[in-house]
């Protein structure tokens, strides 16, 4: 009996000691867990989805803080301001596309392939052709037609192609071999996709500003366009054509911003809040005085970027209080040529209508044109 009593007391004492030991420890554990959860929620970085503009290639955003061509480290203003205010970056979804940032300023990128000495011969006019890395046929079509010319009406001309990342070692090796053969390729380390066309255009502007400031004029021209060089040079050599603050092409007035999330050309209000774009020049091909590239790059630091590249250039020009100029004969900057018999090609400066194969077939024409492969957002907008 005595032994049983002692045993019960011992067990009771053990329970009391055990319970007294566990209870405060448990409370501490729960409190610590809750505290760490709150800290993690507030301060831990969240892994965000790929940006809209790089999601097409399912790859990471390259060198968003890389020291750029002009030796400056820069982000777009709207990203910097958000970081300062410690506000979350806006996330918008359109179908399977997520937008959270757009580090498009050219100083965030550097050249993998470059031709820094190409402008030592002081070209009068430089054609800059944005093209996808795999579009060798398009580049060769240009090389065998209007891009083969080095002098027009006694003025030196130069044609260069700009591409982004290839996405593969074999494709990169082929591109480097092409570069060694032709010496007309520029490659920057941004993801090459449709939604990165604004990056591509701004990198073009920065190359002209830093590598070729001595050129009198430059033209950004799509790879599926044909340029009538004689008519282009006649326009630029006219005494009525300005030498500064000049940009012309197919003008777009009062174009509405597309808010339909299912549209390829959708732009959210977070990126561009206004409902109407400023006057801009259709991105298929516009020519400009070469004093504009450094000004546009500088203006872009104050203009929130969005994915419609030609309208974005228009927004930068608005920031600079520079209005695009109408061509003396606007019909010379043509859009689509569906029937060659219905239009006098000898009077055009630009035209669009077919494929690289058709371009090669036109190399014998005295006033040829280059076809269009894809419908641009601007033509979509012009449709009723």
From TrEMBL:
Region (Disordered): 356-384
Transmembrane regions: 25-44
Keyword Transmembrane helix: yes
Pfam families referenced in this protein's UniProt entry, alphabetically: Galactosyl_T (PF01762)
First-tier enzyme category under EC: transferase
GO MF annotation, one: N-acetyl-beta-D-glucosaminide beta-(1,3)-galactosyltransferase activity
Main localization, broad class: Golgi
A GO CC term assigned to this protein in UniProt: Golgi membrane
Pathway: Protein modification; protein glycosylation
UniProt feature coiled coil, ranges: none
Entry EC number(s): 2.4.1.-
InterPro entries reported for this sequence: Glyco_trans_31 (IPR002659)
UniProt membrane topology term: Single-pass type II membrane protein
Keywords assigned: Glycoprotein, Glycosyltransferase, Golgi apparatus, Lipid metabolism, Membrane, Signal-anchor, Transferase, Transmembrane, Transmembrane helix
Domain of life: Eukaryota
Calcium among keywords: no
GO biological process terms, semicolon-separated: lipid metabolic process; protein O-linked glycosylation
Compartment(s): Golgi apparatus membrane
Family: Belongs to the glycosyltransferase 31 family.
The protein's name: Hexosyltransferase
Biological source species: Cyprinus carpio carpio
Native organism taxonomy: Eukaryota, Metazoa, Chordata, Craniata, Vertebrata
């Amino acid at each position: 009996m005595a032994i049983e009593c002692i045993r019960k007391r011992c067990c009771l004492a053990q329970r009391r000691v055990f319970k007294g030991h566990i209870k405060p420890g448990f409370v501490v554990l729960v409190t610590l867990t809750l505290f760490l959860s709150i800290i993690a929620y507030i301060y831990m970085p969240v892994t965000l989805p790929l940006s809209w503009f790089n999601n097409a290639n399912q790859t990471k955003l390259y060198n968003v803080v890389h020291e750029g061509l002009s030796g400056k480290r820069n982000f777009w203003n709207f990203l910097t301001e958000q970081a300062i205010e410690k506000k979350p970056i806006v996330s918008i979804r359109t179908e399977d596309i997520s937008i959270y940032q757009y580090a498009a300023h050219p100083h965030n990128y550097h050249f993998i392939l470059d031709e820094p000495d190409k402008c030592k011969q002081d070209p009068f006019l430089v054609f800059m052709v944005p093209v996808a890395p795999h579009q060798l046929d398009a580049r060769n079509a240009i090389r065998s037609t209007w891009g083969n010319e080095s002098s027009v009406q006694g003025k030196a001309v130069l044609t260069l192609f700009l591409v982004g990342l290839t996405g593969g070692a074999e494709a990169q090796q082929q591109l480097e071999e092409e570069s060694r053969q032709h010496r007309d390729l520029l490659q920057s380390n941004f993801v090459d996709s449709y939604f990165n066309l604004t990056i591509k255009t701004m990198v073009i502007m920065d190359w002209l500003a830093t590598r070729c400031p001595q050129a009198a004029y430059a033209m950004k021209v799509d790879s599926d366009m044909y340029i009538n060089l004689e008519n282009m040079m006649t326009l630029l050599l006219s005494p009525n054509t300005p030498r500064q603050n000049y940009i012309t092409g197919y003008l777009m007035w009062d174009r509405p911003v597309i808010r339909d999330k299912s549209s390829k050309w959708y732009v959210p209000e977070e990126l561009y809040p206004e409902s109407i774009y400023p006057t801009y020049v259709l991105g298929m091909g516009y020519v400009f005085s070469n004093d504009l590239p450094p000004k546009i790059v500088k203006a872009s630091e104050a203009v929130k970027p969005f994915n419609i590249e030609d309208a974005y250039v228009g927004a930068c020009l608005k920031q600079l209080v520079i209005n695009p100029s109408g061509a003396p004969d606007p019909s010379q900057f043509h859009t689509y040529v569906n029937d060659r018999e219905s239009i006098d090609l000898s009077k055009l400066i630009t035209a669009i209508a077919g494929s690289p194969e058709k371009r090669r077939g036109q190399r014998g024409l005295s006033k040829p044109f280059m076809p269009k492969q894809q419908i641009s957002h601007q033509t979509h907008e012009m449709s009723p």
